[in-house]
Amino acid sequence: MTPDAGQEALAAAWGRLPQSHEGVARLGAFTRTRVERIIGLVIAVGCLALGGQGFVAALNSRATGPAWHPALMVLVFVPLALMLIAGFVGRGQRVLAGVFVVAYTAALVLWPLAAAGVPASTGGEPWVFFLINVGTAASVVAFPLRWQMITTAVIPVLWGVVRLVQGAFAPALAVPVVVDVSFALILGGIIVTLGWVFRTVASNVDAARADAVSSYAAAAAADATEKERVAVGALMHDSVLAALIAVERARSDRERTLAVGMAREALTRLANAERDAGMGSEAPVEVDTIAREVEASAAELGHRLHVECTHTAGMRIPGVVARALALAAAQAIANAIQHAGGVGLRVDVDCASDPMRVAVRVRDTGPGFDPAAVPADRLGISASIVARVAAVGGRARIDSDAGGTQVTLEWAEGA
Predict the structure, then answer these.
(1) Where are the domains of the chain?
(2) For the chain, is the Cβ count within 10 Å smaller at the N or the C terminus?
């Protein structure tokens, strides 16, 4: 397979799933995203009803002193209004819900001071009571589960303490306050539990979907690998078999020369099976061409590389040889990047004359490997490096140990 086959298969798998604006933004969690949006809208609607009830009660309330009443209304209802707007718009609700929880808690703490000197009525609850579960619902949007539970317990209990302090712990207030706190705790617990259940279900759905997509990608990759093996097998059967038949039937020097050419073409086509690359021309090219092609191949792999050239000025070799050496070196670079992370990667090209000789060395300082342990069906070394160089009359040598790997590609004129 090509290096990007796995990513392409994964992208194809995602492409088969229904998508929307939120789904495109977060492919791996769009069920959770939708559930979060639904929770936000439901809480906004519920808080609008309870908040409206509390606001109407606050307009005619005499539960606090005249100086404190407008200040507390601004402290509570301005953050509430902003949270509701954010909930319906779908932006910034988490932050503004957290602001409301803090503001409402501050209002409860200040309530004994604001209600100082005002007798606590047993006939009805003050307006701040209607917003207890608004604070609980806001915490479901704003906080993680642990803090939701803490907020759900603290706000009702704090209200009960504040109410008893305002009434100087009068026995007549004890039962109503306990009942109010109990109902607030029960309703708050239900709200928190429902939010946790819906979010857990959504996360499980996303996890199951991700597993399904991963399985699809693995199946697609396996299918692509099998198709590639079939194609390579057909190539070997047609090209190599034809070359072997030509060799077996060759009787004259002319026929032997043609058989050698067919064998060379078959080996080169096999070596290039993973990459669309021609054999190149027999016309001489400068040895520096190898360095330029190797640098370009490394850049395609996302690795900036400078190839060192020695004794190559003015040296020219057949184009087919330069092309084969460049492609084999590119494959060695790809292997070094994939298996050694490109650690210490360097390439140098050396040339000598009389007779003409070219050597390309690809080195890295990775963990190394055992060339003999490479499976026979992996063509990255056997076909793309060894067979490719052998097809033009050269040879490849791989030396690897714990200190790194060196791939040496050599070609000599007349060898």
Answers:
(1) 5-212, 280-412
(2) C
